Backbone:
């Protein structure tokens, strides 16, 4: 995966996490229709940030194989959501989450550096 594609995936993860933080912050406690309508502008702003990240995700998917882009994008998003929840809402970060997140980042790194395997050998038409 090229550096630009990794940057797209990282930007996607950051924007979607920021969008989720803004969404969670804007949601009213009672979830009544009146309360939701009162929060319409912050909710729309949160959706715009989130969908901007989704747009970057679409670009990254279009530029790469699904089997490469998907695990990297999802892995980075999972890890950034854990950090974002801790930073924005004081959600607990345990040793398990740190170790698991480290494995996710290691997996994303390994996938990004992997080279495709050569195609399997094809047999002559006379063997079919």
Residues:
């Amino acid at each position: 995966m090229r550096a630009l594609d990794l940057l797209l995936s990282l930007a996607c993860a950051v924007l979607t996490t920021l969008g989720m933080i803004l969404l969670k912050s804007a949601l009213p406690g009672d979830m009544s229709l009146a309360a939701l309508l009162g929060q319409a502008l912050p909710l729309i702003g949160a959706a715009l940030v989130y969908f901007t990240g989704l747009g970057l995700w679409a670009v990254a998917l279009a530029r790469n194989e699904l089997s490469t882009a998907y695990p990297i994008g999802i892995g980075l998003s999972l890890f950034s959501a854990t950090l974002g929840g801790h930073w924005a809402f004081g959600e607990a970060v345990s040793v398990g989450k740190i170790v698991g997140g480290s494995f996710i980042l290691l997996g994303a790194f390994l996938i990004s550096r992997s080279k495709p395997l050569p195609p399997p050998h094809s047999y002559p038409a006379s063997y079919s």
Summary: The chain has one domain: 3-115. The radius of gyration is 20 Å. Residues 3-115 form one domain. Residues 3-26 form the longest helix (24 residues).
